[in-house]
TrEMBL record:
Pfam family, one: Glutaredoxin
Species the sequence originates in: Ornithinimicrobium pekingense
Keyword terms of this UniProt record: Membrane, Transmembrane, Transmembrane helix
Top-level taxon in the UniProt lineage: Bacteria
Descriptive protein name: Glutaredoxin domain-containing protein
Keyword Cytoplasm: no
Domain Glutaredoxin: 66-124
Transmembrane segments: 28-45
Lineage, uppermost ranks: Bacteria, Bacillati, Actinomycetota, Actinomycetes, Micrococcales
InterPro entries, alphabetized: Glutaredoxin (IPR002109), Grx-like_ET (IPR051548), Thioredoxin-like_sf (IPR036249)
Amino acid sequence: MRRLWIVLLALVVAVVGASVWQRDWLFAAAYAAGGLALVWWTAPWRGGRTTTHQEVLAMPESERSVVIYWRPGCGFCQRLKGHLGAAGEQATWVNIWQDEEAAAYVREVNGGNETVPTVVIDGVPHTNPRPAKVLERLQAL
């Protein structure tokens, strides 16, 4: 799944190339815009560099009351981020597609699955918790 963006990019290039070959400029532009947006949505670097799992472990416990493990292309992660709004900036965000140790931690606490969002609240991991629960904790900070 981490390389899904490469497959999508290849498909976008093929579809846009076929549209250009057929001189169907409008469809080529539409496919390029939509396809590249989808590629960006699933790219591991989306969201910029995030905190690593090692950096989280090095933080004092008082600074890691809410740690959110997420990955690009995850609708549940996007829903959580949208629900948290500005309060979400108080959480520590870790992209598991940028950090193999973070992905291993998520698998460890989720029975071998890379289920995200995995939110660690006061040291206790929660798999895909209700956004209201996370928001409540962030507002208490």
